[in-house]
Structure formats: structure tokens, C-alpha cells
């Protein structure tokens, strides 16, 4: 009888550990995606800013390529870039918080990971 409870407890701990790891992986994936998108915005801004403001450029909006001027596109790109940086900061904080939560849980339950 005691063995059954121990087995159930161990399975529950294993499930909780897997849940923590899965959450961390999801957040890490989102961080990678946002970092890539942020870098793309940065490159486009660096390319467009030295150009004449009335120069024609194209922008993809909801899958549709639209013609604009540099003066129209740069402010929107800057706004998006700043928003992406904030999202990235939030995700990094979320990752760190979740990681700290997992470490506390491991310490509380005396978990020692043999293989990560």
C-alpha cells in the first residue's frame, strides 16, 4: 500500500517537473521568435533611415504588399520595434520567474535531476 502511494507521488513529481520544463521551453521558443523579429525590424530601420523621406518603399501588411514612402513606414517600424523590445523584456522576466519557481520547487521537494 505504501509503495502505491510512493509510486503515485513520484509520478506526480515527474509530471510537475515535465510541466515546468515544457513551460520553460515554450517561453524560450517565444523569446527566440521575438528576438528574430526584433532583429529584422532593426535591420530594416537601419536600411531605411538614411534614405530620402519621399523615396518609395514597400511594406507587407497582413500578407498584402503595399506601396508607401520611407516617411510613412519608419515611424510605424519604430513603434513596432519598441513594442517588440518590451515584449522581449517581459518574456525574459517571465522565463526568469518560472526558472526561479522551478528551482524553489526542486529544493522544496528535494529533487535532484540526473539527466537534463
How would you characterize the overall build of this protein?
- By secondary structure, the chain is mainly α.
- It contains two helices and two strands; from the N terminus they run H-E-E-H.
- The chain starts with a helix and ends in an 8-residue tail after the last helix.
Shape, per Cα inertia axes: rod-shaped
Note the beta-strand portion.
5-15%
Major sheet: order of its strands? 1-2
Number of H/I helices: 2
Describe the largest sheet. Answer: 2 strands, antiparallel
Mean pLDDT over all positions: 92
Q: Spans with pLDDT under 50 lasting ≥5 residues?
A: none
Alpha-beta classification: mainly alpha
Helix fraction bin: over 70%
Number of strands: 2
- End-to-end separation: 31 Å
> Which radius of gyration do the C-alpha atoms yield?
23 Å
What sequence of helices (H) and strands (E) makes up the elements? Answer: HEEH
Write a brief caption for the model.
The chain has 116 residues and is mainly α. The chain is built from two helices and two strands; from the N terminus they run αββα.
Any descriptors?
116 residues, mainly alpha, two-stranded antiparallel ribbon, 2 helices, rod-shaped
Layout of strands and helices, then pairs:
Elements: H1 2-48, E1 56-61, E2 64-69, H2 70-108
Antiparallel strand pairs: 1-2
Helix pairs in contact: 1-2
Amino acid at each position: 500500500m505504501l509503495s502505491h502511494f510512493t509510486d503515485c507521488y513520484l509520478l506526480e513529481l515527474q509530471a510537475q517537473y515535465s510541466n515546468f520544463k515544457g513551460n520553460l521551453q515554450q517561453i524560450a521558443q517565444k523569446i527566440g521568435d521575438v528576438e528574430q523579429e526584433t532583429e529584422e525590424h532593426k535591420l530594416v530601420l537601419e536600411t531605411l533611415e538614411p534614405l530620402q523621406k519621399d523615396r518609395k518603399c514597400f511594406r507587407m501588411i497582413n500578407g498584402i504588399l503595399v506601396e508607401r514612402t520611407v516617411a510613412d513606414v519608419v515611424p510605424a517600424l519604430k513603434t513596432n520595434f519598441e513594442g517588440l523590445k518590451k515584449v522581449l523584456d517581459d518574456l525574459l522576466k517571465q522565463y526568469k520567474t518560472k526558472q526561479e519557481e522551478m528551482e524553489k520547487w526542486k529544493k522544496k521537494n528535494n529533487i535532484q535531476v540526473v539527466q537534463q
